[in-house]
Amino acid sequence: MTPHATNLGDSSASATRITPGNALRPEDIVEATRLGTVKPSEDVAEYALRLGDDALILAQRLGHWISRGPELEEDVALGNIALDQLGHARSFLSYAGAAWGKTEDDLAYFRREPEFRCAHLFEQPNGDFAVTIARAFIVANYQFLLYRELSKSTDSMLAAIAAKAVKEVDYHLDHSTQWVLRLAGGTDESRRRMVAGLNLMWPFVGELFQDDSLTARLGAAGVVPSSLKDEFDRSTGTVLAEADLDVSALHMSTGGGRAGRHSEHLGFVLAEMQVLAREFPGASW
Amino acid sequence: MAQNSEPNSSGASIKSVSSAASGKAVLDGLTPDPVQLAGQEHFDAVLAKDSRVEPKDWMPDAYRRSLVRQISQHAHSEIIGMQPEANWITRAPSLKRKSILMAKVQDEAGHGLYLYSAAETLGTTRDEMMDALVAGKARYSSIFNYPTVTWADMGAIGWMVDGAAICNQVPLCRASYGPYGRAMVRVCKEESFHQRQGFEILLELANGTAEQRAMAQDAVNRWYAPSLMMFGPPDDDSPNSKQSMAWNIKRFSNDELRSRFVGMLVEQVKVLGLTLPDDQVRFNEESKTWEHGPLDWDEFKEVLAGRGPCNAQRLERRRTAHEEGAWVREAAVAYHQKQQDKQKAAA
Ligand SMILES: [Fe+2]
Ligand SMILES: [Fe+2]
């Protein structure tokens, strides 16, 4: 009966997970980089840091919904999405850290705000359920296209992480699409809230598709953000048209997250996320 | 989390019970009719064979009521039990721990779902059960009315609270009511992961810095007595246990289960290198059972009656989530209805 202190730290132990399992775990990446079989270039590491930070901050946001969802099924669904995002974050951060001799936890807990590379969209507060769905809908469309392309990366580890992630994001895409349709086509109130949610979140779309010198240097190892924009417009446009929603008049914010200039919100997210780890620097958990 | 063997809730709102059988009148107090007699005979035979009662079978009203009460209280415990642990998701000190904790709390939502479904087969709806919960009319395991003040509480809850739940629930896998027993099989598998993960958290802390070790011991000290009380009042003060055992729902008495649990803690706390806050724990060679020091049943009753440290907070949080989610649930229903209308119009 004595529990063994073996590594059970695997979220696949959860039977309520709907999305596909853990073919490539962060622990596997750590092992591969430790053995020196794979090591990211500086540019690839910087790029992985961006994707990891996006997923980490979103997971942190979504984690707050667990036990607060509008119905139990949504506690489970949003929890699933948060877990998937956290899994992707751990993979990208573990890989990025291999370039600098840092662990995923060094990067998550001991960087300061300007050192984070997430885009502003991921930092935005949850708001009500419609705001969360609006953000989730943009993220899922973006990540689906991004990971699908990245799974062809010339960097085999990035390709492997993305290939696994895209299967999970496919479910996130379905989840958020269904809710956009339901909220827009449900009651007057849900429609009003869905419109308000999109108004709040859509301005952050622009930043996701901005190219910079890093994405140019990466070439076929990464994905040029602007190359995804047309298909993003098409895929979101189909759903928004079906829901009779129009986002064409909304302006685009300037962003700055990739360069470490963040929204007003990230500092609070980090303060909460990092508080305990920083209270005990060097401790093992 | 926890099956609770706590006293009955007098106010539990179970409206549709008597209309829920196989459509036949089976009200207590009527002159036995042939259908009822045949039903009772079959029911007794099923129990005698230690076999399963299924939703469509005839069953005594009191059996149905008792099950609805127990299963819904169990479901509520899973749902309220998410809160003390969700409290630490955003602050988990490593990404691996964050991931495990999120998965765990999400599992508990799943347990709530299986259990509400099992209760629904007895003719009460999830809405009715949820309404009773947010109205403060339903009971849930009182242990969740204690606060989680340090990270070590995630370890102590997994190890002791999920551990107590396992001791309670493994025998329930054989409960005479089929849907409940089967729900318990699924739940127990996950609870044993939870317990091992909690143990692992404590082990890591116990082998960490002096501060971490003190944090672990403090959490064990605080959760020990409440976890022992999860098994319900002592046998001589547990009026429903006898009937529940006669119905093959409960298999062991509260004190028997508690004693086994203490035995398990005694073994495992050694591996942790921590201590239990009870100098009266001993193995009674005569009765072959584990004994423990006195428990504060007055406190237990106070907390159960709604006067514990977090009762109001837990209920308020559930009520807020429920009320703030109302427009979402209404939207889903309205959308579904519109889609059906469209399909009809097209047909
Ligand atoms: Fe549970
Ligand atoms: Fe559990």
TrEMBL record, chain A:
Keywords linked to the UniProt accession: Oxidoreductase
Location of the region described as Disordered in the Swiss-Prot/TrEMBL record: 1-23
SUPFAM superfamilies: Ferritin-like
One function term, GO molecular function aspect: phenylacetyl-CoA 1,2-epoxidase activity
Positions with biased composition (Polar residues): 1-19
EC assignment: 1.14.13.149
Matches recorded under InterPro entries: Aromatic_CoA_ox/epox, Ferritin-like, Ferritin-like_SF, PaaA_PaaC, PaaC
Pfam family, one: PaaA_PaaC
PANTHER family: 1,2-PHENYLACETYL-COA EPOXIDASE, SUBUNIT C, PHENYLACETIC ACID DEGRADATION PROTEIN PAA
NCBIfam families: PA_CoA_Oxy3
Protein name, UniProt field: 1,2-phenylacetyl-CoA epoxidase subunit PaaC
Native organism: Arthrobacter cryoconiti
Gene (name only): paaC
